[in-house]
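As described in the Methods, two query proteins were run sequentially through the folding procedure within a single session, without resetting any intermediate state between them. The first query and its resulting structure tokens are shown here.
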Amino acid sequence: MPTEALTRRARRAARPGPGPTAAPGLSARDRAYQDLRHRILTGRLAPGTTLLETELAALLGLSRTPVREATIKLAEEGLIDIRPRHGITVRTVSPEDVRDILDVFSALEIRAVELVARRGLTDEELAHLQQMLSRMERLTAAGDIARWSDMDDDLHSTIVALCGNPRLLRTLGEYWGQQYRARLLILPLRPAPVQSDLEHRAMLAAIAARDVEAARRTHQQHRDRADAQQVELLRARLGSGAA
């Protein structure tokens, strides 16, 4: 689909998925970064896990130098802590930390939506987004929350990828990774996303009308409600001892 081809790179910047990248010619540092990030985001390296640099190098089958460079990048993204002579520790997921991350992430995403509304949508882009919303509504009706959650990520990333600001997209991508683990934890507790579907429709209508203020307002309301729900569900999940 042409719209997908046009926005795929920007979507990856805004929502860099947890899967390891197998692009040819990837440097050893980037391979180490992608592999470790994948293991952290998917829980294969659980919160609280501590490993020495030599253990990480052996785990990844790489030398210590690219592994060290990769861990510095992961620490900058807030996924691990580095302790000299004690290796790295995967950071825990706490409701307070996720709340702070979402404060920044949502503010950036709202700004991106404003820029998209100012830019406007082509007929092809609008049709593609409407099709995505229709699929999400069908998944809601079917009770398939896991697939709906994946499509929710796709919808948001497709919209913000149209904002035309690569610096904003890169920063969004960094904060997306920091809140991704919380999204996975709360997935079993999420209610049917009927309200989210309605809010997505209102936001898309405002963007299509190039009504910047309405786009900002509807997306702000959506993010405020969804973020509060995510933090509340995370408290419930961690409080139950199921994490």
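Immediately afterward, the second query was submitted; its sequence and tokens are:
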Amino acid sequence: MKARRIARELALLSISQLPTKPERIATQQLQDVVVAAIRTLTAEAQETLETAVAELERGSDRLLSSQTRAADLQSSRAMVQDAMDLAQAAINRIGHAVEIPEFVQLANQQEVRDYVLEILTQVQKSRTEIDQLLETSMVDWQVHRLVRIDQDILRIAIAEMWFLGIPEQVAINEAVELAKRYSGEDGHRFINGVLRRVSQQIASRV
């Protein structure tokens, strides 16, 4: 995992906890917000593993039922398929949970934390300008109507490409990856389209 990718994700998990007025933010407060986000991830890993265990137990029960309680072959096959689906879901959850300790370890590196704080500070400092740029870049839509996670992904990407010197394509690609992980089913496509229009707006201002 790259340090800045971890930092972006950590910033996304932290940004909703910030006060609405930028002047009220202190460095220590930002540090506390980041620590809280890391603790949330740790708790999420534990919950994910517990859910995976429950799915494996249910899958085991379905397999047993397919052998002892199925009325016919078709019912038995359906039960076996249910067991396989549950096992696959459990494997996917375990795979995600296994990534979290590495994420937490990297999140504690100074390089990662410094960039998280840089993102959070810039987003808060320039939120008005960022949201105005967003409004002019969206077609028949308004920033406040977006789900919060999409707003925050967009704000982080714009802060990076407009103020933090990150190449536009890199910022867009990273935002799309965040959206695939945290947004709705088609969120990444929407965010990709908006950010491409944003990049054109930024280019026209230079």
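DSSP finds eight helices and no strands in the chain. We note this only descriptively and draw no conclusion about the first query from it.
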